[in-house]
Design a protein that fits this description.
It is built from six helices and no strands. The chain is an all-alpha fold. The protein has one domain. Bound molecules: protoporphyrin IX containing FE (HEM). The site of protoporphyrin IX containing FE has 26 residues, from helix 1, helix 2 and helix 5.
Amino acid sequence: MNYFLIIHNILRWAVLLFGVWALINALTGVFSKRNYTGSDNKTGLFFMISCDIQLLLGLILYFNGAWFDKIKAGMGVVMKNPYDRFFAVEHALMMIIAWLLVHIGRSMVKRSDIDTQKHKRSLIYFGIALVLILAMIPWPFRAGIGRQWFPQF
Ligand code: HEM
């Protein structure tokens, strides 16, 4: 049983929960022009921490599993197989970009002293990151690459 894969599977729900929560906060913040509160900050922080742990687990799965061996054996072969290409290239790369956007977003929010600007920055950076994450999760309905909603024991 691969415990890292089990945790990576479950933690995606935490990433999505905090991501959607942070996005709703940003949207209500922009449209109702309300103050940027400690709760807005905490939700963004939890979104970032869940992405950090997911990145760490992803890297362990990547370098400890068969994926890195496949890349070492030849990138040409990996790119020709849609399943291998998804996990070894597309999923890993796009999730790292999403992780970067969450980090850049957090520091851009911190740098601003204007509440509406903080909400706008959260909306843009967290919004794009969340779209990338949603697009790159191997949902069960995705043909060829689909995985389970929850881990199978
Ligand atoms: C927010 C970020 C991420 C989310 C939500 C996410 C989500 C997922 C999900 C749901 C799976 C399927 C789990 C299963 O089959 O039970 C998966 C598999 C995988 N992920 Fe991620 N992931 C993220 C980031 C990353 C990153 C950054 C990497 C690598 C650098 C990575 C590497 C992998 C690999 C290699 C697999 C396949 C593992 C295997 O089949 O052995 N993930 N990911």
